[in-house]
Amino acid sequence: MDIRKVIEKIYNEVKPMFGRGKVADYIPALAEVNPRQYGIAVASIDGESFGLGDCRTKFSIQSISKVFTLAMVMRHLGEELWESVGREPSGTPFNSLVQLEYEHGIPRNPFINAGALVVTDRLMNLYERPKDSILQFIRENADCDDIYFDRNIARSELETSSRNMALGYFMKSFGNIDHDMDKLIDVYCNQCSVAMTCEELAKSFLFLANHGENPFTGERILSVSKAKRLNSLMLTCGFYDESGDFAFRVGLPGKSGVGGGVVAIIPGKLSIAVWSPELDSHGNSCMGIETLERFTTDIGTSIF
Amino acid sequence: MDIRKVIEKIYNEVKPMFGRGKVADYIPALAEVNPRQYGIAVASIDGESFGLGDCRTKFSIQSISKVFTLAMVMRHLGEELWESVGREPSGTPFNSLVQLEYEHGIPRNPFINAGALVVTDRLMNLYERPKDSILQFIRENADCDDIYFDRNIARSELETSSRNMALGYFMKSFGNIDHDMDKLIDVYCNQCSVAMTCEELAKSFLFLANHGENPFTGERILSVSKAKRLNSLMLTCGFYDESGDFAFRVGLPGKSGVGGGVVAIIPGKLSIAVWSPELDSHGNSCMGIETLERFTTDIGTSIF
Amino acid sequence: MDIRKVIEKIYNEVKPMFGRGKVADYIPALAEVNPRQYGIAVASIDGESFGLGDCRTKFSIQSISKVFTLAMVMRHLGEELWESVGREPSGTPFNSLVQLEYEHGIPRNPFINAGALVVTDRLMNLYERPKDSILQFIRENADCDDIYFDRNIARSELETSSRNMALGYFMKSFGNIDHDMDKLIDVYCNQCSVAMTCEELAKSFLFLANHGENPFTGERILSVSKAKRLNSLMLTCGFYDESGDFAFRVGLPGKSGVGGGVVAIIPGKLSIAVWSPELDSHGNSCMGIETLERFTTDIGTSIF
Amino acid sequence: MDIRKVIEKIYNEVKPMFGRGKVADYIPALAEVNPRQYGIAVASIDGESFGLGDCRTKFSIQSISKVFTLAMVMRHLGEELWESVGREPSGTPFNSLVQLEYEHGIPRNPFINAGALVVTDRLMNLYERPKDSILQFIRENADCDDIYFDRNIARSELETSSRNMALGYFMKSFGNIDHDMDKLIDVYCNQCSVAMTCEELAKSFLFLANHGENPFTGERILSVSKAKRLNSLMLTCGFYDESGDFAFRVGLPGKSGVGGGVVAIIPGKLSIAVWSPELDSHGNSCMGIETLERFTTDIGTSIF
Question: Per residue in B168-182, is it b (16+ CB within 10 Å) or e — as a string?
Answer without folding.
Answer: bbbbbbbebbebebe
